[in-house]
Each structure stands twice: as C-alpha cells, then as structure tokens.
Amino acid sequence: MTLDTVFTGYADPALHSQGLFIDGQWLAGGGIPVIDPSTGDVLAEVADASVADAMRAVDAAEKAAAGWRRTPARQRSEILRRWFTLMTEHAEELALLISLENGKALPDARGEVGYAAEFFRWYAEEATRIPGEFRPTPSGSHNILVDHEPIGISVLITPWNFPAAMATRKIGPALAAGCTVILKPASETPLTAYAMARLGAKAGVPAGVVNVLTTSNPGPVTNAMLADPRVRKLSFTGSTGVGRTLLAEAAKTVVSCSMELGGNAPFLVFDDADLDAALDGAMVAKMRNAGEACTAANRFYVQSGIHDAFVAGLSKRMAAMKVGPGYDPATQCGPMITTRAVDKIDRLVADAKARGARATTGGEAIPGSGYYYPPTVLENVPVDADLAHEEIFGPIAPVYRFETEEEAIRLANQTEYGLAAYVYSRDLTRAIRVGRGIETGMVGINRGLMSDPAAPFGGVKQSGLGREGGVHGILEFMEAKYFAVEF
Ligand code: NAD
User: Fold this and answer.
1) CA of 74 to the centre of ligand 1 (A)
2) For 15, how many CA atoms within 13 A lie in the half-sphere containing its CB?
3) Is 24 buried (19+), middle (13-18) or exposed (0-12) by CB count in 10 A?
4) Which EC number(s) does UniProt give (predicted)?
C-alpha cells in the first residue's frame, strides 16, 4: 500500500503534506525518508529542518504570541473545538496514515485518533475554566490575588508510538492556556503531525500559533531553540535517556520542563482475581499498539494459585493473534517500528531463554522485509533477566511467579521507572492497598486501559515530571502570578 492508495477516494488528498509548517506557510523540502514498517519501503520524504528553520519557527511563535494570549478564552476554545470536529470528520484517513507510517493495526489506529481528538475537546472546555485565587493573608496584612498566565513559547517533542495523541495531549493544553508552540514530531511518523497541522489551520488556528518541523538533527535543533530566551517551556515525550539529556540542556536557560518518559509496568494478578477479566486486561495492557506503549505491561507477576491457568489462557490468546501489516483489516498485531526494535526484542528474549525462560508461544522474529515479531509468552522467567529491568516495547509477555502480597509489591517496585501498574484482585481493599504500595503515577485496578483525556497521565521516579491531561495538564503551560494587594 502507498500513500496514494490510502488517500484515493478520501476527502482531502492534500492531507499528506511533506514540507515544514512555519508561520502558517508550507515550506517545500525533503531529506528524511518515511518508511512503511510492514515492508521496509519508502512511503514519502519529509523536510529536514536546520537550526535556521527552527529559529524561523521561534520567530513565528513569538510574532503570534501576543495576539494569541489576548484572544478571549472562548474564542481559543471554539478553535480547538473545531479542530476536534475536523479530526473526527477525517478520522478514517488519519487512522490509515498512522497505520501506514507507524505500523499499528487499524483498530488501534482508529482508537488513537479518537483518543487524540478528545484532547482538543477536553481542552476546548478547560480553556474557559482557567482558575484563579483570591484570599486575605492569615495575618490580615493584605490580600493575595493569583492569576494564571500562559508560560510562553513552548517546544513540544513527541515520539513515534502515538503520532497523533502525543501531539494533541500537548497542543491542546498549550493552546488552551494561551501559548504558541513549535512541535517536533518523531522522524519515523511525521505525516500524521503534518496532516493534523493542516486540519488545525482549517479550524482557524492563526499563523504562527502552531508550527511543525521535522529534523534528522534533533539534538542541535532543539538545543538552539532551548538556548533562545524567548522559549520558556519544553514538553517532551520519549525515552528516559533523551529526557535526561534534554533536562540538562534546559537547565542552561532554566526552561520549565514536563517529561513523559519510559515505563516498565508491572501487572499483578492475585489468586482471587477474575481470571477472564485478568486475561482481557492483560491483552489490552500488553498488546495495544503491539506492545509499543509506555504503559505496556512489561512484567506479569502472577500468584502461585492462578499462575498456570493464567499462563495457559494468555498463551492461547496471544497465539491466536493475527500478525500482518497494520492497514490490513484482519491484522491484530502490526510490525515493530524499525529493524532495531526487532533486534532489541530478539536480544531480550534470547537473554531470558538463556537464563531458563521458556516460550509457550512465539519467541523468534519473523523473517522477511517487514519488521515483525510474533506475540510471545515467556514463563519461568528469572527476576534478574534483562527484560525485567528494560522497557521491552514489543509483544512479549514475561510471566513471573509470586507467593505473597509483600513480595509482589517489592518486585513491582524493583525498577527505576514509575509510570503505570495494574492490579487484578476481587478484593478491592487489597487492590487499593497494593496500588498505594506501588511507586507509579498511575494504577489500573481490574482494568488494562487507563489513558483518558480527563485523567492526569504521568510518572514518578525516572518515568518523568509533571502530568498531561485532566485539569492538571493545562497548568503545565501556565505560571501562577501572585499580586499582593492592599485596599
Ligand atoms: P526517543 O526518546 O528516541 O525520541 C522521542 C523524540 O525525541 C523524537 O521526536 C526524537 O526525534 C526526539 N529526540 C531524540 N533525540 C533527541 C535530542 N537529542 N534532542 C531532542 N530531541 C531528540 O523515544 P522514541 O523511541 O521515539 O519513543 C519511545 C519512548 O517514548 C519509550 O521510552 C516510551 O516509553 C516513551 N513514551 C513515553 C510516554 C509517556 O507518556 N510517558 C508516551 C509514549 C512514549
């Protein structure tokens, strides 16, 4: 399948633009190939921004900043709401585009578009409810008035695994808060970001409020933007390693940072869990996006009494999944993003096997030109295997056995990450107690899917700083300003 076949018969063939989007203008350019991971073929080429292009984007964001900040909240809200509507109207072509450049199965891509669009609807509503405070000091000396002001020009950097949702989760609150932005999507999946920018312009986003650039040189280009004193915010989603580098860079100009980084989610199943519900949840938590999700269950800890039934049930469901190109309607598990990703999974599985793990299904990469790895269940995995500590980012479910609640909590916390965790038990009191004992920003209780635009998404430990979504997300793009008022 090619881009043209995806767009034949669709409403807006121009959706797959390939140039930089700066100051409301499309600048021609090429240099970065976009690969279809189901075949390894080149789908398109997108522009490769230089430092000078990035500076032009900062100029554009600055030129638009004062007008956007002064635009009444209701008007900003209506623009975001129109963008939501346009994404909904174009949902099918956006889903195909995501499937094509990212590889994810169409149901996952459709789910992502719906989830992504909802951030615009949610923040269209939040834009009109920005909080303030007024309160006398306890001593009665004066009055405290607190305003929330837009933080300023924001650089948004997003990964390839959710090309639409990671962008709207940042653009929505930034625009609602009154900030102008420069979005740098991942080079693997830029077409979705450019398609959404086109819809944003149609929705009435003024020139310069949202700028989008792709680059093969993300370090120098981002560093140049962070060094510019006009840039006041960095919102990054990606790996913990790159996050650390960016935090160090942002420290030089004391730029405010929000960081959504890697995960290593534990999935705990207690003897008293509803087995079918736990298996349903495990499939969602593991296989959404073929395991390429920061919230993906990375370690299954299963209590002894239910362990064998869980492994048997999970192996059966994983073995039944249809692997293929994301855009084939029959596909349930698409390809990985790159050959590098397949090699990493191969290494982790080989290490686990060498330490005594056994694959009950899958366990070997699928040869051919696409980047496929089959759904795999590993049992008898020792807790010191590399995949117990590293983010797998693929369709591998390693299962570990535990005996007691204390042991489960201890194992769950044996990681530098702290993004998401899952707990399955019919005893809600226990599930909450265990959830409180686990060091993560989010816990799914008898539920395998937790992402929702109305909820605060984010991690603790080395999984990040700050929250996206909910009422929390907009404050990441605002500064509290205190007025001491005497009257
Ligand atoms: P990555 O860190 O390699 O890249 C993320 C983004 O950063 C891309 O746009 C990339 O081009 C850019 N980048 C890379 N080096 C850079 C540099 N030196 N300076 C500036 N930008 C740079 O991550 P990835 O492989 O694209 O995504 C997978 C990772 O993202 C996983 O670790 C996953 O857990 C994480 N993730 C986290 C969340 C979350 O919400 N916590 C959500 C999705 C993905």
Assistant:
1) 33
2) 28
3) middle
4) 1.2.1.-
Please report, as a single letter, which amino acid is at residue 270. Answer: F
158 and 104 housed in the same domain: yes
Q: Which domain holds residue 409?
A: 265-453
> Does 458 reside within a domain?
no
What is the distance in A from the centroid of ligand 1 to the CA of 159? 4
How distant is the alpha carbon of residue 388 from its chain centre? 22
Residues 392 and 481 in one domain: no
Q: Which residue's alpha carbon is at the smallest distance from atom 30 of ligand 1?
A: 238
Residues involved in catalysis: 260
Q: Predicted confidence band at 31 (pLDDT cuts at 50, 70, 90)?
A: very high
This prediction's pTM: 0.97
0.95 surpassed by complex ipTM: yes
What residues are in contact with ligand 1 under a 6 Å CB criterion? 157-162, 166, 184, 186-187, 218-219, 222, 237-239, 242, 245-246, 260-263, 294, 391, 419, 459, 464
What is the C-alpha separation between 349 and 385, in angstroms, rounded?
Answer: 9
Which residue is listed with tokens 């080989």?
350
Q: Is residue 340 part of a domain?
A: yes
